[in-house]
């Protein structure tokens, strides 16, 4: 059974979908802990599912490195096989990436390498593209530059705003994430950095 730690910053709707999938007896992975960089609303999903959680507040640390070190120590308590960034809106310091690489994956609301960074949906709209997408990648030291594990195109519709487009992207992200976690757990997919 693959053990998974999930890191979030926000509402955790993708986390919730993974918790739902992983609570099915046939699913080959289990979420063992949920972590956050702030008092994220999504931590309530962990509580509802009886999954332990922790918070390592970014702002309580002098540097990204110091934050990453404590985050790594908290993760190590649970010895996760895989770490899923599901809306964690912080760049991990290289030392933390190196500590767990290539076992950290990330969901992103755009068709990478298009529109990396914190505003993938907003940037796609601003660029006026007619389609964007959703991606699941391996985390490396760059900003959304790691190997792509799964991705799918999603049309931008006339009248879309950031919210409506993001809400249409998220269900695709969830499906891709759950499938990637399942394929890693079964050995169908091997992570490399
Ligand atoms: C998701 O769309 C995720 O891909 C994105 O934040 C959202 C979190 O939603 N992450 C990034 O943009 C990272 N650069 P959620 O909190 O409802 O799961």
From TrEMBL:
Gene3D superfamilies: Formyl transferase, N-terminal domain. InterPro entries: Formyl_transf_N (IPR002376), Formyl_transf_N_sf (IPR036477), GART (IPR004607), GART_AS (IPR001555). Pathway: Purine metabolism; IMP biosynthesis via de novo pathway; N(2)-formyl-N(1)-(5-phospho-D-ribosyl)glycinamide from N(1)-(5-phospho-D-ribosyl)glycinamide (10-formyl THF route): step 1/1. HAMAP family: PurN. It is an enzyme of class 2 (transferase). It comes from Microbacterium istanbulense. This is Phosphoribosylglycinamide formyltransferase. Belongs to the GART family. N(1)-(5-phospho-beta-D-ribosyl)glycinamide binds at residues 12-14. Keywords: Purine biosynthesis, Transferase. The record marks 144 as: Raises pKa of active site His. (6R)-10-formyltetrahydrofolate binds at residues 64, 89-92, 106. GO terms for molecular function: phosphoribosylglycinamide formyltransferase activity. SUPFAM superfamilies: Formyltransferase. CDD domains: FMT_core_GART. Residues 4-181 form the Formyl transferase N-terminal domain. Catalyzes the transfer of a formyl group from 10-formyltetrahydrofolate to 5-phospho-ribosyl-glycinamide (GAR), producing 5-phospho-ribosyl-N-formylglycinamide (FGAR) and tetrahydrofolate. The active site is at 108 (proton donor). It catalyses: N(1)-(5-phospho-beta-D-ribosyl)glycinamide + (6R)-10-formyltetrahydrofolate = N(2)-formyl-N(1)-(5-phospho-beta-D-ribosyl)glycinamide + (6S)-5,6,7,8-tetrahydrofolate + H(+).
């Amino acid at each position: 059974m693959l053990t998974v730690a999930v890191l979030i910053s926000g509402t955790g709707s993708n986390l919730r979908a993974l918790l739902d999938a992983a609570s099915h007896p046939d699913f080959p992975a289990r979420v063992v802990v949920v972590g956050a960089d702030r008092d994220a609303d999504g931590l309530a999903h962990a509580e509802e599912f009886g999954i332990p959680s922790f918070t390592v507040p970014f702002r309580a640390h002098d540097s990204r490195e110091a934050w990453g070190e404590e985050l790594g120590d908290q993760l190590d308590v649970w010895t996760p096989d895989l770490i899923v960034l599901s809306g964690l809106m912080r760049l991990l310091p290289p030392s933390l990436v190196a500590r767990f690489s290539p076992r950290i994956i990330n969901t992103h609301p755009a068709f990478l390498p298009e529109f990396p960074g914190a505003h993938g949906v907003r940037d796609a709209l601003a660029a006026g593209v007619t389609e964007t997408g959703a991606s699941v990648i391996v985390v490396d030291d760059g900003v959304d530059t790691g190997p792509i594990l799964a991705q799918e195109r999603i049309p931008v519709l006339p009248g879309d705003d950031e919210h409506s487009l993001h809400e249409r992207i998220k269900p695709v992200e969830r499906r891709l994430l759950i499938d990637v976690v399942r394929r890693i757990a079964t050995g169908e997919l091997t992570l490399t950095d």
